[in-house]
Amino acid sequence: MASWPRALPALLLGLLLAATPRAHSTEPGLVGRITDKGLEYAAKEGLLALQKELYKITLPDISGDAKVKHIGSVNYKFHSMEIRGCELHNSALKPLPGQGLSLTISDASIWARSDWKVRKRFLRLRGSFDLSVKGITISVNLLLGSEPSGRPMVTASSCNTKICDVDVDISGDLGWLLNLFHNQIESKFRSLLERKLCEMVQKSVASDLQPYLQTLPVTAEIDSFAGIDYSLTGAPRATAQILDVMVKGEIFNRNQRSTVALLAPVMTLPEEHNRMVYFAVSDYVFNTASLVYHEAGHLNFSITDDMVPPDSRIRLTTKSFRPFIPRIARLYPNMNLELQGTVVSPPLLTISPGNLSLTPLMEIEAFVLLPDARRESVFRLGAVTNVSAVLSFNTSRITGFLTPGKVQLELKESKFGVFNVELLEALINYYLLNNLYPKVNEKLGEGFPLPLLKQTELYDLVLQTHKDFLLLGANVQYTAD
Ligand SMILES: *[C@@H]1O[C@H](CO)[C@@H](O)[C@H](O)[C@H]1NC(C)=O
Ligand SMILES: *[C@@H]1O[C@H](CO)[C@@H](O)[C@H](O)[C@H]1NC(C)=O
Ligand SMILES: *[C@@H]1O[C@H](CO)[C@@H](O)[C@H](O)[C@H]1NC(C)=O
Ligand SMILES: *[C@@H]1O[C@H](CO)[C@@H](O)[C@H](O)[C@H]1NC(C)=O
């Protein structure tokens, strides 16, 4: 039996492995990248939001005793203070590797007004003063994480405020009195404001930014049948110049979700960037769609004689098959046939630079429709085709379009021995081109939504194809309400 100390390392290792979140070994299907340019824009928009919050700051009354030269101790109270104006000029949002983002607001100014009262025994004096606060710097770290539900999470930590300059302008006949303890007013306001500004930022992060980030859809509806899972696979990752948000990007059956047996590829995003945001969408996203639509039978098809165009050289009747399978017309005189097709396995999209393609393998089984409504299988064909895909996106959705190549048929099994299947190729090509592909393309044309925060719009769109993924780049516009 292993003794405790000897078994301990193995035990710890076991615990460690068990505790390692699965997310670590799971590649995201989609990565949202926010570049320095995007962060710059976010900082600018954030500043406007903070400016509104600043006006909402309520400053508590300040009271105390002060020693005044020649007069002695007086009791003072500053009350009914309000922020009259503010200017926030500069803000910077920078990645904070391993944590999230650091937000710095610098060179900000605030103007406030307050009433004052001074009491000294029977003496009662009152008036007001204006306060001008300049050179304010607020620095706060925004820690980014993900909730178990896969929603993004942000918390403010280590807030610091520095105020360079506080100016008090006292009006009223007896302003001289306050001038006597000017320094005290300044220092009281400085520390009060420094505390209040950080409280304001922290509150705004918790009550504005966090709910806003949570408008990122964790699942989005594609249609009545499928949805896409945009939950985060881990905390957003900050590196020197960018912030990456990794999401699952798995398309699933909304009525019956099952585990996906596909792995997302490792995506190596290019370093260079000149847009605010990028979305790297791997083949995994499209292939999970292929999986669920295939599994639900949306890629099964059936061809009957009424679908064959009138000018076709061949019809789905045993009579029409007589020239190349004489026995079929003899065994099943004057009967119709039905071709039942299925895509053998979910067709997987291959993305490579300049080329998107898939090679669906199909199987087509031919049945003779007997007079007593039974069906009898008579031969089976294998079908293969190269399909090229075009994917594109607009301000909100990724869409696709397939251009089919010619189908090549191969006889797999036959009750009547070998026959020339080429005659059936035209028929099947006609059906696929006019029925199956338009149906699939209609679906792909509706596309699926991109994971976007509320009130954001994309413009200046660019699209690149890389090995195993598409890279969509765009600038963002926040459309405030
Ligand atoms: C699609 O067709 C195949 C072959 O005929 C069949 O095995 C499968 O059950 C069908 N799928 C659905 C959902 O109908
Ligand atoms: C794209 O890929 C398919 C399948 O791999 C191939 O048949 C086709 O020739 C390629 N086209 C181009 C333009 O590279
Ligand atoms: C598909 O493309 C490959 C490579 O370009 C080619 O060898 C093959 O013959 C094509 N198949 C069909 C059915 O067109
Ligand atoms: C984006 O494409 C989808 C699907 O084609 C379409 O429904 C939508 O209206 C388009 N949006 C814009 C803003 O053009």
Automatic annotation (TrEMBL):
Plays a role in the innate immune response. Binds to the lipid A moiety of bacterial lipopolysaccharides (LPS), a glycolipid present in the outer membrane of all Gram-negative bacteria. Acts as an affinity enhancer for CD14, facilitating its association with LPS. Promotes the release of cytokines in response to bacterial lipopolysaccharide. SUPFAM superfamilies: Bactericidal permeability-increasing protein, BPI (SSF55394). PROSITE patterns: LBP_BPI_CETP. It is found in: Secreted. InterPro entries: Bactericidal_perm-incr_a/b_dom (IPR017943), BPI/LBP (IPR030675), BPI/LBP/Plunc (IPR032942), Lipid-bd_serum_glycop_C (IPR001124), Lipid-bd_serum_glycop_CS (IPR017954), Lipid-bd_serum_glycop_N (IPR017942). Its main location: secreted. Residues 271-474 form the Lipid-binding serum glycoprotein C-terminal domain. Keywords: Antibiotic, Antimicrobial, Disulfide bond, Glycoprotein, Immunity, Innate immunity, Lipid transport, Secreted, Signal, Transport. This is Lipopolysaccharide-binding protein. It comes from Echinops telfairi (Lesser hedgehog tenrec). Residues 33-256 form the Lipid-binding serum glycoprotein N-terminal domain. When bound to LPS, interacts (via C-terminus) with soluble and membrane-bound CD14. SMART domains: BPI1, BPI2.
